[in-house]
Amino acid sequence: AMTLRQFKAQVEGVTTRGLTLEGLRVAIVGDILHSRVARSNLWLLHTLGATVKFVAPPTLLPVDIENWPVEIYYNLDDAIESGVDAVMMLRIQKERMNAAFFPSSEEYSRLWGLTPERFARLDASAHETAILHPGPMNRGLEICAEAADSPRSWVLRQVTNGVSVRMAVLYLLMTGGSSHDFYPGS
Fold first, then answer.
1. Which one of 17, 43, 57, 62 has the lowest number of neighbouring Cβ atoms within 10 Å?
2. Is residue 181 part of a domain?
3. Is 14 among the domain residues?
4. What residue stretches are annotated with the Aspartate/ornithine carbamoyltransferase Asp/Orn-binding domain (predicted)?
């Protein structure tokens, strides 16, 4: 959420102070079924006002997904055409490739991967779209190098922000939830 606020502030030319994620459209693509990242982002982004879209094969979606506050897409092209401000690719774990969750890695990349062709369409649009990935990534499977290394990629900032947030949470947990020492003079 922190990275998406920074992205939205940059696009809108404002500061992050008081900025909400209201109206932001975020596609989360990949292994939703096994991903803590997808579920935690869904609940956080939805709470902050964003529209979340899950993109995955039916075999990689939870059974009760129709009860969640999320739009479902079965291929990435349809999700992109519906309008997205950010695309968060999730890593496909190697053990899933042999467990019949999808036919092959080539098929997965063709339908759900951020391929050079899909990225070129996003990159050519006048609309600014952030590319995200929590890492580690399988280049060429779920995300192409062109997207991962592009100026639209917020992957490194996402990883950096994630470390900072986890450090702050651990600090607050270890100090009993007191932020007194965290903010000098408070």
1. 17
2. no
3. yes
4. 22-173
Which stretches of 23-115 are DSSP H helices? 36-47, 76-82, 94-97, 105-112
What is residue 32's predicted lDDT score, i.e. its pLDDT?
A: 95
Q: Give the CATH number, domain containing residue 158.
A: 3.40.50.1370
Whose tokens are 């995300």? That residue is: 143
CA torsion 130→133→138→143, rounded to 10°?
-20
C-alpha to C-alpha distance for 56 and 181, rounded to whole angstroms: 44
In the structure encoding, which two tokens stand for residue 185, read together? 């003079």
**DSSP assignment string, 129-144:** -EEE--S---BTTTB-
Q: Mean pLDDT, 10 residues at a time, over the chain (186 residues)?
A: 86 82 95 93 95 95 95 95 95 74 86 94 80 92 95 90 89 79 54
